[in-house]
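User: Can you recover a sequence for this backbone? Please restate the input before giving your answer.

Assistant: Of course. Working from this structure:
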């Protein structure tokens, strides 16, 4: 199966209503407006395909780029691949596709630490998103808890001066560390409390920004603190 064949398959599935929703969330043209449920049908058929994922992403079509993330063989992704993906990504893709794939790659920690220092908002946001996804799928025994604690402190000191999208992802990082790393749950709640509720311009969407300590408390109430995900992708 080729990228062109998949484009031909998904283009008729596009819906203008969904396209408009995604444009409001920051997706960029070209975009067909194919719902994720339709893309997942192809994912189920293809499963993983490293080369096809790269080709789909390189089409520049938003729907194909999202699908690329679903079928990517994360273990085969090189640093060069990931850098090319983040450089081509629009706002929604740096919030999901890019960090999901980067977190499952062998380069997750190193590339995320590089990205969070970027002066480019989308790249920095992808870096924090990658760290969030990484802690959600990685056993605590394999995490550098001391470094994660330092990163939480960094967020506390810098979040209010961060750009809009980076601020949102930093808040998500506090939530995910508190929810997925048992040793840092209490510290993450303390950091979230010191930060306080944050304001992020969500544009013409109904999205809201969760208050980190409250969100983590809900996870505690469910009894799922530290329960890892099988995959960052959804």
């Amino acid at each position: 199966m080729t990228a062109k064949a998949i484009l031909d398959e998904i283009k008729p599935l596009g819906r203008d209503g969904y396209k408009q929703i995604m444009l409001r969330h920051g997706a960029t043209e070209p975009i067909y407006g194919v719902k994720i449920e339709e893309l997942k049908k192809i994912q189920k058929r293809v499963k993983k395909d490293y080369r096809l994922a790269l080709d789909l992403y390189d089409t520049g079509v938003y729907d194909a780029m999202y699908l690329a993330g679903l079928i990517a063989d994360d273990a085969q992704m090189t640093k060069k691949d990931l850098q090319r993906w983040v450089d081509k990504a629009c706002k929604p893709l740096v919030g999901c596709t890019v960090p999901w794939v980067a977190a499952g790659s062998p380069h997750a920690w190193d590339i995320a630490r590089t990205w969070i220092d970027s002066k480019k908002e989308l790249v920095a946001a992808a870096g924090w998103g990658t760290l969030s996804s990484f802690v959600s799928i990685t056993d605590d025994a394999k995490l550098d808890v001391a470094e994660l604690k330092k990163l939480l402190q960094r967020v506390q000191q810098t979040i209010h001066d961060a750009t809009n999208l980076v601020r949102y992802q930093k808040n998500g990082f506090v939530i995910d560390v508190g929810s997925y790393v048992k040793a840092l749950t209490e510290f993450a709640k303390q950091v979230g409390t010191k930060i306080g509720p944050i304001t992020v311009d969500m544009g013409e969407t109904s999205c809201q920004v969760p208050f980190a300590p409250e969100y983590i408390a809900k996870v505690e109430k469910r009894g799922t603190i530290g329960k890892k995900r099988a995959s960052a992708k959804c």
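That completes the design. The two ends are 23 Å apart (CA to CA).
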